[in-house]
Amino acid sequence: MSLLFRNRSIEKGASNRGRLPWWRRLIMVPVHHAQQAIASLGELWRNPFASFMTMAVLGLSLTLPSSLYVLVKNTTSIADNWQEASEVTLFLRKDLQQSEVDTLKTQTELSEGVESVRLIPKEQGLEEFKKESGFGETLDYLSSNPLPDVLVVIPAESHRSPQRAEELLNRLEKQREVAYAKMDLEWLNRLQGILNLIEDILGALAVVLCLSVVLIVGNTIRLNILSKRDEIMVMKLVGATNAFIQRPFLYTGVWYGIIGGLVAWLATALLIWWVESAVVDLTELYETPFQLNGLTLGELLIIWLVAVGLGLAGSYLAVRRHIQSIEPE
Amino acid sequence: MIRFEQVSKTYRGGHQALSHVDFHVEPGEMAFLTGHSGAGKSTLLKLISLMERPTAGRVLINGHDLRKIKPSQVPYVRRDIGMIFQDHRLLMDKTVFDNVALPLIIEGYSVQEARKRVVAALEKVGIADKVKHYPKMLSGGEQQRVGIARAIVTKPPLLLADEPTGNLDPKLSMEIIRLFEEFNKVGVAVLIATHDLGLIARLRYRTLTLKDGRMINDGLEDSEL
């Protein structure tokens, strides 16, 4: 390609390249890119300490958000497991006939958002209360059973979130036969609130850390560029475009991301392994077997892509500003 | 080939490096550009290679007005000009082969495709046996030859040389000039900036003389004698 001298290559007796068919030139594009990618990996190898520091910073910065993410994910799954939390208890009026109670139970079973309904007759309730409260015999002195019939409603899957469950509660409470309804909503709401808060903090933290990673990578690449000032000038003198000069630096950023992503995996796995034994000890006290969920393959892939993206973004930032400003003197 | 029309260049800060310079170098011509240091030789070459832009007037290469060249097109203009520097401007951590192949790689040649041309260029400047050496292992004259090989490997129609013999003894200098003569014989236009008046005196080429930014002698008459 010659701007000033049209037909230059023909005039000079067609170069080798001019005779290459278009499809071979097309094949050469990825080959050239691969060559440059490998070349910049070699460049990293020549200065392993500084490169590794940047990669470690990149990786460790991603470790914190991804570990927190694992925490949130597991807490959410625990919260989902506690169905009882979304159990709605309906205390019925005492003046109801047995038939009315049965009709109400059937009605409730058929109403929207209800998975199942269990009746606890007042006699059974009293028995249980006797057994569990420790008042035992004392209760025999009561002249009549003070307890009402109780319907325990388990909401359907779609109605288990605190908000939907509360809607259900309000709906059921309006029925004539129901004295009042109760649900351990406060507790669930608080847990959900804490989870939301952690998620928000996680998001903000991730953004701040990602931003700092971009700046750190950008700074490393900037130093790289400045240390190659003379080389860049020479390349510009013999006709290299900015794009050509930029490419190896961009590849360097990508390599930072690839290896930084691996560091993040390793560190996160290590952290989870460290915490896991403590979590298992804790859950054994509650006699509920619990398995800490690590990162899935998809999530690992996302972390990796984010790392590569950050590396590329950082190097792009540095490259844009600095390659243009270096001009041969 | 190179035409300057009333070209002036004032640097920021007010230093006037060139004022109203007019000249024309024909295609296939070889000319010297001389003058004391600070007379504007380097500035003149920089205007041709687009390292600087003129404050007034216009520079044309092969009839193309360089004012119309956008910054993004500058690299492509430089690919048409072989440039040689006093300080060689070689990449010290790359082999002679990599240095000479650089312009070809930039144009998109693969290393295999470039090999034949690099070897041919090194043979032309007489250091084909140094292909795997690093510039530091070479003498000043040899380094300059590497620089020349790099400038000619793409077979540009125009060669610019800024003090190519600056650090060399007279014998080596003459060898380098003979090299330029060979390229000139196959039709390459050559413009050599030098303050080595002794060297110019022994040769009978057109000499452009600058003094304080003005062209005081076009030397056309000399060469026609």
From TrEMBL, chain A:
<keyword id="KW-0131">Cell cycle</keyword>
<dbReference type="InterPro" id="IPR004513">
    <property type="entry name" value="FtsX"/>
</dbReference>
<dbReference type="InterPro" id="IPR040690">
    <property type="entry name" value="FtsX_ECD"/>
</dbReference>
<dbReference type="Pfam" id="PF02687">
    <property type="entry name" value="FtsX"/>
</dbReference>
<feature type="transmembrane region" description="Helical">
    <location>
        <begin position="254"/>
        <end position="275"/>
    </location>
</feature>
<keyword id="KW-1003">Cell membrane</keyword>
<keyword id="KW-0132">Cell division</keyword>
<dbReference type="InterPro" id="IPR047590">
    <property type="entry name" value="FtsX_proteobact-type"/>
</dbReference>
<comment type="similarity">
    <text>Belongs to the ABC-4 integral membrane protein family. FtsX subfamily.</text>
</comment>
<dbReference type="GO" id="GO:0032153">
    <property type="term" value="C:cell division site"/>
</dbReference>
<feature type="transmembrane region" description="Helical">
    <location>
        <begin position="201"/>
        <end position="225"/>
    </location>
</feature>
<comment type="function">
    <text>Part of the ABC transporter FtsEX involved in cellular division.</text>
</comment>
<dbReference type="GO" id="GO:0051301">
    <property type="term" value="P:cell division"/>
</dbReference>
<feature type="domain" description="ABC3 transporter permease C-terminal">
    <location>
        <begin position="205"/>
        <end position="321"/>
    </location>
</feature>
<dbReference type="GO" id="GO:0005886">
    <property type="term" value="C:plasma membrane"/>
</dbReference>
<dbReference type="InterPro" id="IPR003838">
    <property type="entry name" value="ABC3_permease_C"/>
</dbReference>
<keyword id="KW-0812">Transmembrane</keyword>
<protein>
    <recommendedName>
        <fullName>Cell division protein FtsX</fullName>
    </recommendedName>
</protein>
<dbReference type="Pfam" id="PF18075">
    <property type="entry name" value="FtsX_ECD"/>
</dbReference>
<feature type="transmembrane region" description="Helical">
    <location>
        <begin position="295"/>
        <end position="319"/>
    </location>
</feature>
<keyword id="KW-0997">Cell inner membrane</keyword>
<keyword id="KW-0472">Membrane</keyword>
From TrEMBL, chain B:
<dbReference type="InterPro" id="IPR017871">
    <property type="entry name" value="ABC_transporter-like_CS"/>
</dbReference>
<dbReference type="Pfam" id="PF00005">
    <property type="entry name" value="ABC_tran"/>
</dbReference>
<dbReference type="GO" id="GO:0016887">
    <property type="term" value="F:ATP hydrolysis activity"/>
</dbReference>
<protein>
    <recommendedName>
        <fullName>Cell division ATP-binding protein FtsE</fullName>
    </recommendedName>
</protein>
<dbReference type="InterPro" id="IPR027417">
    <property type="entry name" value="P-loop_NTPase"/>
</dbReference>
<dbReference type="InterPro" id="IPR003439">
    <property type="entry name" value="ABC_transporter-like_ATP-bd"/>
</dbReference>
<dbReference type="GO" id="GO:0051301">
    <property type="term" value="P:cell division"/>
</dbReference>
<dbReference type="InterPro" id="IPR005286">
    <property type="entry name" value="Cell_div_FtsE"/>
</dbReference>
<comment type="similarity">
    <text>Belongs to the ABC transporter superfamily.</text>
</comment>
<dbReference type="InterPro" id="IPR017911">
    <property type="entry name" value="MacB-like_ATP-bd"/>
</dbReference>
<keyword id="KW-0472">Membrane</keyword>
<dbReference type="InterPro" id="IPR003593">
    <property type="entry name" value="AAA+_ATPase"/>
</dbReference>
<dbReference type="GO" id="GO:0022857">
    <property type="term" value="F:transmembrane transporter activity"/>
</dbReference>
<dbReference type="GO" id="GO:0005886">
    <property type="term" value="C:plasma membrane"/>
</dbReference>
<dbReference type="GO" id="GO:0005524">
    <property type="term" value="F:ATP binding"/>
</dbReference>
<comment type="function">
    <text>Part of the ABC transporter FtsEX involved in cellular division. Important for assembly or stability of the septal ring.</text>
</comment>
<keyword id="KW-1003">Cell membrane</keyword>
<feature type="domain" description="ABC transporter">
    <location>
        <begin position="2"/>
        <end position="225"/>
    </location>
</feature>
<comment type="subunit">
    <text>Homodimer. Forms a membrane-associated complex with FtsX.</text>
</comment>
<keyword id="KW-0067">ATP-binding</keyword>
<keyword id="KW-0131">Cell cycle</keyword>
<dbReference type="InterPro" id="IPR015854">
    <property type="entry name" value="ABC_transpr_LolD-like"/>
</dbReference>
